Structures are given as structure tokens and as C-alpha cells.
Amino acid sequence: MFARRMTQFDFRLSRVTQIGKVRIRPAFDICNLFNSHAILALNTQYGPAWQTPTRILQARLLKFGAQFDF
Fold first, then answer.
1. 40 in Cβ contact with 6 (< 8 Å)
2. Does residue 2 fall inside a structural domain?
């Protein structure tokens, strides 16, 4: 038996800006954009909890960041 295929869609926006000799790269990331709840692990022991999910994909995550090069 196989579990369903896991799909996760990550998205990133970034842009490089030059101010004098300094390069600034702000970034905005969204992990698991469509909020998939794919199963990562199942209980494999026979009994009443057989095939019960024990781990699922993390929820949507937003990240802001910046990189400075000088």
C-alpha cells in the first residue's frame, strides 16, 4: 500500500536594489502556499490505530528577510 503523493508549492518574491556601493535584496517567502495537509508518516502497527496519520505537512509559513552586500 502506498500513501497519496505529497505536493507542496513554495513561492518567493525578491528584487535587487543598488544604493551607492551597497546592494540590498529584500525577500518575501511563502512556504506551502496552498496549505496542503499531506501525510508524511502513518502508523504501521496492526491494531485499531493502523494507517492513522502520525505526521502531516506543516501549515503555511510566511518569511520576510533581506540580504545586504557591501
1. yes
2. no
Residue reference for cell 501549515: 59
Distance (Å, rounded) from C-alpha 23 to C-alpha 25?
7
- Please report, in tens digits, the pLDDT of each residue of the chain (70 residues total): 677 777 889 999 999 999 999 999 999 999 999 988 888 888 889 999 998 989 988 899 999 999 999 9
Structural contact between residues 9 and 32, judged by C-beta atoms closer than 8 angstroms: yes
For the four alpha carbons of 16, 17, 23 and 29, in that order, the dihedral sign comes to negative
Domain that holds residue 47: 11-58
Instruction: Residue 11: count other Cβ atoms within 10 Å of its Cβ.
Output: 11
> Which pTM value belongs to this model?
0.69
Number of domains making up the chain: 1
